[in-house]
Amino acid sequence: PRVCAAANYPLYIRSIPTENELKFHYTVHTSLDVVDEKISAMGKALVDQRELYLGLLYPTEDYKVYGYVTNSKVKFVMVVDSSNTALRDNEIRSMFRKLHNSYTDIMCNPFYNPGDRIHSRAFDNMVNSMMMQVC
Amino acid sequence: MEPGPPGGPAASAAGLPLSESEQQRYSELFSRCCPPPEAAAGGSSVGELFRASQLPPDTLHQITEVCGAKRVGYFGPAQFYIALKLIAAAQSGFPVRIESIKSELPLPRFVALKNDGDVRYGTPAELHGVKFQVPHATLEKNSYKRTDEGDKQEPKSPPMSPICSPPASPSTYQRIPLTYGYGKSRSGLEQQHGAPYEVRHTTHQQDGPSSGNYGAKPAHACSTLGRSLSVEREQPDSSAHYSDDPWRITEEQRDYYVNQFRSLQPDLNSFISGSVAKNFFTKSKLPIPELSHIWELSDVDCDGALTLPEFCAAFHLVVARKNGYQLPETLPDTLLPDYLQAASLKPLRDCALFDSYSESLPGSQQTRDFSRTEKTSAEEVPDNSALLQDTKKDDKQALKVSTTVKTIPKDFQHLTVKTAPQEPNALKARPRSRSYSSTSIEDAMKKGEEPPTPPPRPQKSHSRASSLDLNKIFQQNTQAVRSGWLPPPPPALPPRPSVSQTEQVSEVELHPQMNRPPSQAEENSSAKKEVVLVQPPSKPARRKLRTETQGLETPELSPTINVTSSLPAVKPHLPVQKPSSKQKRAIQTAIRKNKEANAVLARLNSELQQQLKEVHKERIALETQLEQLRPVTVL
């Protein structure tokens, strides 16, 4: 499982089992296209829904990709092993919500420039705890 | 702990039989507490040393009295030696009397005083482990911090360092469970003492780096001696004794922080916006990631703004970091806003206004060094607050008035809060007094722009802080006070202040109308929550009409000064007016609080609106791009 928040370039990438990192990176990047597609599909009228959970993006292969995008076009992508069937949709949603909340907390930090890599320890801790729950 | 090297009969000092070792030790301690130029030891450093002796506070008070320091107001060589002897006597179990010290006694033992590495100092088992490192760090901090101010302390560090175990260990400062006992009780005592002592004590003052450097600055809290920088520096040490925990903020440090807060945000009840804080902390020259981490730790509500306790915590962390301490992963308990808020409520009654005032002056200079830089950069930022008008001195004054009661009307550094009610005035007066001493403060005040609607704080019993109006009013009052340097308001005034207070409280305008009497009255009514605006009721009405930007500045200076001076005198008058104004005050308070809340919400709203606009713009831009691309991709 891996989490990547990116505005088309990764601001934060974390994965737990650390092998296959490159594969995860690739997966996340490809899924970004899917995300963009979904965003554009919503149309301008559905602006409000941009912040919503995007749902399962890419169920192929042996993992699932979930997406979430915020109003400021920051995307959260989560890649989960298909073997991990314990994860339900609402769990994924709650995880994204937590990610989003942590992200906004980071934004509150005046020393953080949007677009910088995220080095926040609080964010790290939150992500780690979340991933521990899943794995 | 054993007495130091057995001293022979040796010479006596000031008619006091002192053995050679005693003489040596005493003179050494004295010189530590008392920088060469001065002839008397600073209260704060002496206080720290006394605290290090691990005697109960009342014993120390007793000693202070017996040795005559209270009489003369400072620790001269004679007093100091007598005091040390008394300490030794007390430690040996003798009563604190002059007679006890006639006989030969072991040398007094001071905990963690590593100067000579003597056993005498007694290495407090509990504390030491950590202390050693902390003191060293503290020393480092002191020297670090002081760099811009002066390096008096640095020379001290070297001698200390060999004694301290390798300070580097970051773990040491973490939650050092040092006894805090002395600190609080001693605050009064220590504060009285000179700073020089504290500088030395920094090493063993675990209080952490912050006390070292910043402590010095704000230290003035009680030092009777208006020493110059040296005193200031030392002061922080004294504050350190409050807690050996480097993450605990001492009184002096707190004062200093509050002063700095004021410089950025006149209203102590309000908060500093992120950009302002960013500029301010950037001045500390810490790397951005560390500042970012500090912010994360201190902004517990993650609102992008720092309230006073959050600011104190952040500042404390910055100081700690600069002194070499590693930043913790989570915010220490002593730095939690709740804790700090509760702590800040304790009025620093100990410090006499006079002391604080004089002390603050020297201290303020130091702080000014830092704050000046901060002000210049930070000030520009805070204009979000609608209250720009208050800016300039008014803000400062207002803040002072409204700020926590605790702060005593000292300059930046001394924010000791004597009594909540008085503080507002005092606060204002203080900044003003500083302005006299240093123009930078005034500038800073100006920059401190209006407090964005301070969230109601329990500390603000005098509740000025709550509404900007109050601030303004106070500022005005303080200004008036300052300008006049009026003597304590005549007894007749007190009744008025209560009345005026209530009225003025509701008024936001900063009118420099506050004449001296009003400001003084304010001080008197310090007991009252609100800043006692002595001015007659009619004035408040006028104030309202006026815009905030009325140049409070000039008058502010004088009023604040007057305020400070008049505060002590005024206090006795306060009780008179209270009954009549209580009701009014209650109403005023409620009104103020509501106004403050409104102001805060309005501010938030405006900020959010701005953000929303920006986000909308972005979205529009993106949509436009999408539109442009669509015809291409959609086939």
Automatic annotation (TrEMBL), chain A:
<dbReference type="GO" id="GO:0006888">
    <property type="term" value="P:endoplasmic reticulum to Golgi vesicle-mediated transport"/>
</dbReference>
<keyword id="KW-0813">Transport</keyword>
<dbReference type="GO" id="GO:0030008">
    <property type="term" value="C:TRAPP complex"/>
</dbReference>
<dbReference type="InterPro" id="IPR006722">
    <property type="entry name" value="Sedlin"/>
</dbReference>
<keyword id="KW-0256">Endoplasmic reticulum</keyword>
<dbReference type="GO" id="GO:0048471">
    <property type="term" value="C:perinuclear region of cytoplasm"/>
</dbReference>
<dbReference type="GO" id="GO:0005829">
    <property type="term" value="C:cytosol"/>
</dbReference>
<dbReference type="GO" id="GO:0005783">
    <property type="term" value="C:endoplasmic reticulum"/>
</dbReference>
<comment type="similarity">
    <text>Belongs to the TRAPP small subunits family. Sedlin subfamily.</text>
</comment>
<keyword id="KW-0333">Golgi apparatus</keyword>
<dbReference type="GO" id="GO:0005794">
    <property type="term" value="C:Golgi apparatus"/>
</dbReference>
<protein>
    <recommendedName>
        <fullName>Trafficking protein particle complex subunit 2-like protein</fullName>
    </recommendedName>
</protein>
<keyword id="KW-0931">ER-Golgi transport</keyword>
<keyword id="KW-0963">Cytoplasm</keyword>
<dbReference type="Pfam" id="PF04628">
    <property type="entry name" value="Sedlin_N"/>
</dbReference>
<dbReference type="InterPro" id="IPR044760">
    <property type="entry name" value="TRAPPC2L"/>
</dbReference>
<dbReference type="InterPro" id="IPR011012">
    <property type="entry name" value="Longin-like_dom_sf"/>
</dbReference>
From TrEMBL, chain B:
<dbReference type="GO" id="GO:0005886">
    <property type="term" value="C:plasma membrane"/>
</dbReference>
<dbReference type="GO" id="GO:0005737">
    <property type="term" value="C:cytoplasm"/>
</dbReference>
<keyword id="KW-0479">Metal-binding</keyword>
<dbReference type="InterPro" id="IPR018247">
    <property type="entry name" value="EF_Hand_1_Ca_BS"/>
</dbReference>
<protein>
    <submittedName>
        <fullName>RALBP1 associated Eps domain containing 2</fullName>
    </submittedName>
</protein>
<dbReference type="InterPro" id="IPR000261">
    <property type="entry name" value="EH_dom"/>
</dbReference>
<feature type="compositionally biased region" description="Pro residues">
    <location>
        <begin position="156"/>
        <end position="169"/>
    </location>
</feature>
<feature type="compositionally biased region" description="Polar residues">
    <location>
        <begin position="359"/>
        <end position="368"/>
    </location>
</feature>
<feature type="domain" description="EH">
    <location>
        <begin position="253"/>
        <end position="337"/>
    </location>
</feature>
<feature type="coiled-coil region">
    <location>
        <begin position="587"/>
        <end position="625"/>
    </location>
</feature>
<feature type="compositionally biased region" description="Basic and acidic residues">
    <location>
        <begin position="369"/>
        <end position="378"/>
    </location>
</feature>
<feature type="compositionally biased region" description="Polar residues">
    <location>
        <begin position="548"/>
        <end position="558"/>
    </location>
</feature>
<keyword id="KW-0106">Calcium</keyword>
<feature type="domain" description="EH">
    <location>
        <begin position="22"/>
        <end position="106"/>
    </location>
</feature>
<dbReference type="Pfam" id="PF12763">
    <property type="entry name" value="EH"/>
</dbReference>
<dbReference type="InterPro" id="IPR002048">
    <property type="entry name" value="EF_hand_dom"/>
</dbReference>
<feature type="domain" description="EF-hand">
    <location>
        <begin position="286"/>
        <end position="321"/>
    </location>
</feature>
<feature type="compositionally biased region" description="Low complexity">
    <location>
        <begin position="9"/>
        <end position="21"/>
    </location>
</feature>
<feature type="region of interest" description="Disordered">
    <location>
        <begin position="1"/>
        <end position="24"/>
    </location>
</feature>
<feature type="compositionally biased region" description="Basic and acidic residues">
    <location>
        <begin position="138"/>
        <end position="155"/>
    </location>
</feature>
<dbReference type="InterPro" id="IPR011992">
    <property type="entry name" value="EF-hand-dom_pair"/>
</dbReference>
<dbReference type="GO" id="GO:0016197">
    <property type="term" value="P:endosomal transport"/>
</dbReference>
